[in-house]
Design brief:
single chain, mainly alpha, 7 helices, about 160 residues
């Protein structure tokens, strides 16, 4: 029979389990630290899309592509963010068919608040693992995301 301590040690290093745990803990942190502060209509589902818009604005098509989701999915969240006065939609000055998304004044203030909170968390991570290890971890995660985007986890026989 296998050594129980070895099984326990091996089970700690299962990547999908670690990603799940980290995501769950980050979601909890976002709910407590980020999303409820002075903005009751903002929730953790809004965060990735909201932070992707950036200060220069973005079209819904570009946003959907960057988030790797459908335009309908981004449109739903955009409408929710417009309803709580975080975003505004404007026709592009370059192409009237394109609608650009921009932060409202309230949205830009909240964007800076969120960004500062995330930078503080990253600083804490760097204290725990060191800047070099943190940068390596980010690079590894980016490569894993790229792998999944390119291969969609389809095994080829």
């Amino acid at each position: 029979m296998a050594n129980p301590s070895l099984i326990t040690e091996e089970s700690k290093k299962v990547a999908p389990k670690l990603v799940y745990l980290l995501k769950r803990l980050l979601d909890e942190w976002m709910g407590k630290k980020l999303c409820r502060i002075n903005e009751p209509g903002f929730n953790s589902a809004h965060l990735p899309l909201f932070m992707t818009i950036g200060k220069s604005g973005i079209s819904n098509n570009e946003l959907a592509a960057k988030m790797n989701v459908t335009k309908q999915a981004t449109s739903k969240i955009v409408k929710e963010l417009e309803a709580i006065n975080m975003l505004k939609s404007e026709k592009s000055p370059d192409d009237a068919r394109v609608v650009m998304l921009h932060y409202t004044t309230q949205g830009e203030t909240f964007y800076h608040h969120l960004k500062n909170q995330v930078l503080d968390l990253e600083a804490q991570y760097k204290k725990v693992v060191g800047s070099k290890n943190y940068d390596i971890a980010i690079d590894v995660m980016l490569k894993l995301v790229q792998f999944h985007e390119e291969h969609n986890c389809i095994e080829k026989n």
